[in-house]
Amino acid sequence: MLRVATVNVNGIRAAFRRGMGEWLDVRKPDVLLLQEVRGSDEILADHLSPDGWHLAHEAGHAKGRAGVAVASRLPMSAVRIGLGTDVTGDAGRWVEADLEIPAEGERAPRTLTVVSAYLHSGTVGTPSMDEKYAFLAHVTTRLTELVGSGGLVVVAGDLNIAHREVDIKNWKGNRGKAGFLPEERAHLDRWFDELGWRDLGRDLGGPGPGPFTWWSWRGKAFDNDAGWRIDYQLATPQLAALARVATVDRAADYEARFSDHAPLVVEYDL
Hints:
Distance between the termini: 6 Å
Helix content: 10-25%
């Protein structure tokens, strides 16, 4: 079984101070897809390289902002950064890596392509929403290419879009707000209904509501499970057929959280 975890860490240094290292020791993912790293290559390597991870990372242009990364126990044969666009006004929101799965028994060596992706939240009525829609269009183009390859591909990360009403606790109060706009959700409809990508968090996590992956630090959102499901693992049909278990690693209590997001962990029978 290959264990793939995705999580928005809200700063790698802060996450490790809050206990992310202990979570890694317990969960032992084979592939770790990170968003909002908020650090340099050196800072990321200081936290993960000593433990033997292969790393691919693109830091954000603005210091202390953005940044996405792939950390893998499997060797990387290729790394691709970005989508050929700067419409988000920042870098490091799409990192793609080809991982080599060794031969085992009668199975020949295979390649698993993994993507760590981040879409910014955006604000209605501002240029940031135009940038988000433009970036979503580029993501759709790349997803079309990837699913058309017929290979084993997982695209994971914080998309900052709740797909359905069951994916957000207070969906009525968030109609018309970024993250739950019909225009945003329509992109996910196309990915799933037209392109054939599988939403493993929903496929393996039950019909909902939830399980949610993000809760505000403020108030009693976490205690009341007033969250959003905005972190995803999207798989091509070929890989989805091998997915067995999806789990949201929700912390035991508010104080035990190392981020305002919880990791989404999927196990694949490769």
